[in-house]
Protein: histidine kinase
Organism: Ectopseudomonas khazarica
Amino acid sequence: MHSGAQGRRILRLYHFYRLIIGLALVLLISSNLDEQLLDVVHIGLFRTGSWVYLILNIFIAVLVQRPKHLAQLFSLALVDVIFLSGLFYAAGGTPSGIGNLLVVAVAIANILLRGRIGLLIAAVAAMALIYLTFYLSLSRPVAVAQYVQAGALGALCFAGALFIQGITRRLQLSETLAEQRAADVANLEELNEQIIQRMRTGILVLDTQHRVLLANQGATQLLGRGELSGKIIDPHCPELLKRLQQWLHNPSMRPDSLQAQVDGPVLQPSFISLQRGEQQHTLVFLDDISQIAQQAQQLKLASLGRLTAGIAHEIRNPLGAISHAAQLLQESEDLQGPDQRLAQIIQDHSKRMNLVIENVLQLSRRRQAEPQLLDLKYWLHRFASEFRSSAPSDRQIHLETRGGSLQTRMDPHQLTQVLTNLVQNGLRYSAQQHRLGQVWLQLFRDEKSDLPVLEVLDDGPGVSAEQEQHIFEPFFTTENKGTGLGLYISRELCQSNQARLDYKPREGGGSCFRITFAHPRKLS
């Protein structure tokens, strides 16, 4: 039994076929052509049966739209065969041609009914043809010659039933296989869509008007925009449009990297032309090269650290001797003022060289973070108290905390190292602008992320827009005496504790370094 939309279509075809046959018979008897064209045996039975056949099929077509049981289809086919057999008998047997209608009816019934039930309908039709032909031969001797035709029609009923069932079985297998493959394709498309959406690489598909036809989640995150599908990319990311124009002008040239957001990652775009019929689309890949650059820097510094560790002993010995000799020169009473100044320069630069070696060695032998559950309010009060006790009188640190309990998981020794570096930098730059160097520590909970945040603010000169994107790079410094590793190490220590260190320009001048801590239940 066919189910679903295809089964209903076949049933409607079966209804339509029976209605056409019934209507043709009624038109035949209404025009009195039945007596001229057919050798009717029982004219009253034929005409009455034709009307009943048409009316019955009309009711069946209206009432039987979606049969719920196999018995309904079997009953429908059996009634059809019985009525056509009766009309076959009344019309005079095989010369009437109604036997051919029986063969067609059996064939259509076997599309809906399979196996033995379909063959049972064919058997009923064949038996009716042969038996009614025999019954006609009793009253009409001329009907004896119709046995061969009746037997052939009965055989055609079985042949048609078997043939239709074989074709239907193959079609069903093909349909099942097609549905299975369609389901597999749909599942693969869904899987591909999930993979594309979860890829870290941003993927965009643009048409010739630069309208976004497809944008995965990685693209929206890297570009720092909301939903992009269906929008023109030009106002949302003009830098990407410039790179696209460069690529269209010279596809062999690698496009320059770009930064879609002020604090966002550095992106490397790549473009591929897509031809879909007559439409020309562009596939855009956006790769975050910030992490690659950071990993390259880490490898470079690790190699530098190992190299420095290998030669540190050889450097420190002559460096110590130079520093000691400069100190002895300064203590000499015969040394004049200008020479004293030269000796001090030697000693200062010796200390600076030693500090560079210490910082690079720290990168190569940095210990693994051991996060602990910290009460940030208590920890910061203790840190501020210890720092004030050792700070000069012209250096001040202020602490402000807001909200309830603020906890995180972080290595306390590494947090001390990070905060000491930030506070000392802030005090130094603040003292360059004012007589009193000051730093403000503000601890609060971020409303959007619900994470603890610590801001280190100063009233110094701040960082220029050109230098802002380089301040966390290793060996970048704005001072002649700096090593350029302090902020880099601080950010690395924060990242090893799943925290984040960012720079925010302060309104009214000065700098703001923000530490966003991890959730206290987040494992390290």
Observations:
- Residues 147-198 form the longest helix (52 residues).
- The longest strand covers residues 267-276.
- The radius of gyration is 46 Å.
